[in-house]
Every structure is written in structure tokens, then in C-alpha cells.
């Protein structure tokens, strides 16, 4: 049952929440770096620039990566490479890949990047933070910043006391991991975390943004989801607030998106044959608008290369 509840594109909600609250993410996870940034100047997400270096890197698994241009307090421009390692397993080549991306940024754009990683896995011993080699006349030691979400299990009171949006993000992530086989408990935590958004006195926009993240990662089977909605509607009525009735619309849009993915994948298989898992994964990260556009474009496809060309032209990293 738990396998059926897994989503293929868990990087999507992370990307959305990072874009919505990037300064808060830096202040929460990497306060030392956040202190050298002038947050009064606008930051810029460099999706096209990151695409250029990512195309040359290995395909296969996709990651929630963000390349961001910020300004130091002293006035200089710096780039930040933020990597979210979503997969719940360790990876031997992770540190090498962090070094490779950093080197590619410097080589292609002449910009040193601050490399930072948020590790979402469940292995307490896996803590990559450097890539090095040492020969008689040449040595290298590349260190990068890492945060391990698992460590926040012992800082729960601190998370509850925080009004930073990423305290909620971490709480939802941890409780999703802890309740993979206790879905009734997951439903209770989902309700509790969304109710907490109201209790913090957040603005409607923030409640909706964080609701989207919680709802996406804390997926429930249909029966429990129906129970959750009944309980939450009653809660809203008691508080005479209707912020999360917008959540019903979000849930409807999510349902439309999942139906669209299923239909597009089925049509593509008929047009171009069996799709590699990596390509299926890329399609599952498309927005509803992109899925609709692909649904129209695929009528002209005759081979899988047509699909790859379309994804290359229309999909951001």
C-alpha cells in the first residue's frame, strides 16, 4: 500500500517552496551564508544557466537543484548552488557530483559558486561534505555545506516554536518518513501541521503555499483523505475561515494533473513505443499547462527523439 502512495516527482514541491521562500530557506538551513547576503537586493534564479551545465551531466535520476544569483553585503555578486537530495538512499558519487557542478559553473561562467546540499534521506551515517584527492604534486579538498533533515528529529520543540516556513517543511518531511506504515497517524499529523499554520497567524498566501507542500508530501489513501477533509472542513467552520477551501481547488488541480500524466504517457507509448524510466520521470514533473501542450504536440511525433526534442525545448530543470 505504501508504495502506491509514493509520488514520482517529490522534487516539485521542494522547488516551489524554495522559490517562494528562498531568503527564509537560507536563514533556516545555512545562517552563516545568509549573513553575508544583502537581502534588500533582489535574488535571481538562474534556471537557464543551470540547464546549460546540467545537460552535460549524467542523465538518469533528476534532482531538485537551484542556481541563484545574490549580492553580498559588500556589493559583490555571488552564485549559490542549492541541491536538494530527495532520494531516501545514500549515493557513493554524491560528493564528486557536487564538485563537478561547482567546477562546471566556474568553467562555463567564470563564477565561483557556494555549494550547499539539503539531505532528505533516512541514513544517519551518510554525511557527505567534501570531495578530495591527494597526489605527490597535486592535491584538492573541496568542501560544501550540508544539512541533514534527520537531525531535526531531536530538535522538534525548536521546530514547533519557529515561524520560519521551513520549520513546517521539515516537520512535514520527517512525519511523512516516520508514518510510511502508520497512515492513520499520518492523517493526524497532516491535520495538526495544517492547523498549526492558522495558529501561527500566517497570511492567507503563506497558508496556501505551505498547505500545498504538506498536502503533496503527506499523501493519504482515498478513504483517509476523505476523513481528513471532513474533519478539516469542520475546523474551518469553527474558525470562520476559508483559506483551505482553496485547498479543495488545489486538490482538484492535482487530480487533473495526475490524470493528464496518465493519459499523456499512454498516448506517447502508442506513438513512440515504450518510454525509458528517466523520460517517464521527466514527464511526471511537467505542470498541467505543459502536459496540455505536450498532449497536442505528441500528435505529430513519430519517434522518441521527437519527444526528447520537445522536452529539451519546453522543460526547465
TL;DR of this structure?
With 317 residues, the protein is an alpha/beta fold. The protein is 55% helix and 13% strand. The strands form two sheets. A five-stranded mixed sheet has the order 1-2-3-4-7. A two-stranded antiparallel ribbon has the order 5-6.
What would you note in describing this structure?
With 317 residues, the protein is an alpha/beta fold. It has three domains: 3-150; 152-251; 254-314, no CATH class. Helices cover 55% and strands 13% of the residues. It contains 14 helices and seven strands. The chain has helices at residues 11-20, 22-29, 31-35, 47-56, 94-109, 156-161, 165-178, 183-199, 204-217, 222-239, 245-272, 277-283, 288-297, 304-314, and strands at 44-45, 64-71, 77-85, 113-119, 130-134, 139-143, 145-148. The strands form two sheets. It has a five-stranded mixed beta sheet. Strands 5-6 form a two-stranded antiparallel ribbon. Strand 2 (64-71) and strand 3 (77-85) form a beta hairpin. Helix 7 (165-178) packs antiparallel against helix 8 (183-199), helix 7 packs parallel to helix 9 and helix 11 runs parallel beside helix 13 (288-297). The longest helix has 28 residues, at 245-272. The mean pLDDT is 84. This is DUF4351 domain-containing protein. It comes from Nostoc flagelliforme FACHB-838. Pfam families: DUF4351. Residues 253-311 form the DUF4351 domain.
